[in-house]
Hints:
The protein has 243 residues and is α/β, with parallel strands linked by helices.
Amino acid sequence: xxxxxxxxxxxxxxxxxxxxxxxxxxxxxxxxxxxxxxxxxxxxxxxxxxxxxxxxxxxxxxxxxxxxxxxxxxxxxxxxxxxxxxxxxxxxxxxxxxxxxxxxxxxxxxxxxxxxxxxxxxxxxxxxxxxxxxxxxxxxxxxxxxxxxxxxxxxxxxxxxxxxxxxxxxxxxxxxxxxxxxxxxxxxxxxxxxxxxxxxxxxxxxxxxxxxxxxxxxxxxxxxxxxxxxxxxxxxxxxxxxx
Length: 243
């Protein structure tokens, strides 16, 4: 039987997932940031601020932001003086990020179309590697983690911000109802695309639980791994070090 991976609640071939995820993000690229505000009530901004504080970017550091298309994390890292390379497999997302950078007057970012599973960067190039709300859309997560480890220098750090499953009783059930019933409707109203947002919610449900994903980070070679739950694990900050 050929290898199968998850695309929302479906199991598909790796090639089909890559193609369909690409179509999802091409469809939502121009409304992506507006939808993030609508779906989270603006909370995603606070989560991203907290995430970048944990990364502790330093002036002159070389940081790779994976799946960073629209620039939300990159702009924050650059504000601290880091030298940021923004990579994304989807050119439409990168184009939105470049446009936003021009409007903001943000110079110095490097924009690079990359498959997180097969990065073109040389070994030990970066001091830190970040990925926010992108790892669950990667076809082969283990390969992306291995690539992040490869391109980090010794002493480099990996930080991942991703949805997970909240462990707070009551809140979990309320969020499940909201996400499955209302988010696709919001997606239709704002982005004209209910199906893409239905997939994005389903992809959260299929993503490994916090401790399981932490084990995957360790399996990629990272040490001193840590998980920081937010809202009981609705969102989590994962980290690890290359030592």
